[in-house]
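seq:
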Amino acid sequence: MQAYLTATPIVFIILMGVRPEVYGFYIMIMPTLYVVATIAARRMMMRVSLDRIILLGVGFSATGGLLHLLFGLWGVATPYPVLVAFAISNFGTGLVLANCYAQALNAVPSAIAGQASALGGFLHMGWGGILAIAVASMNHTSSLQFGMAQMLTTWLAAATAILLIFVIKRRTAEGG
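struct:
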């Protein structure tokens, strides 16, 4: 989201010619989708494990990141494909974020849950800040630069989720 807030004024308003009031509407779409996804995740929890919801979410996020990169490589110069790609990715983030925090806090003793939560928030906001600075320092000639950042962060999230769920968690469950 931080990269979206950093890059999209340049990409949409300057490069694609979107009027500022329309851009304001585009900004409102993303947090709305995030809220819808968190509600969907809550409802899914009654039927699906947290790990599966997280994997579904990173699947959405990584797909959105890949689409965003592809649209940038193809030279797409209209806002709708970029919005769709980011919307898919952001919906996935809504499925993932709260569930990842819940899983992380379940993995530590309750005596240090506050510190674990603070560390998770610091890492989340810290990565967002680093990404925002990196995106802001790029020379935006199209949506490609934003697509590269989106692809990088979503695929890193997917790789981390897969590593934690399929390798580390399973190894810990087996006693190894």
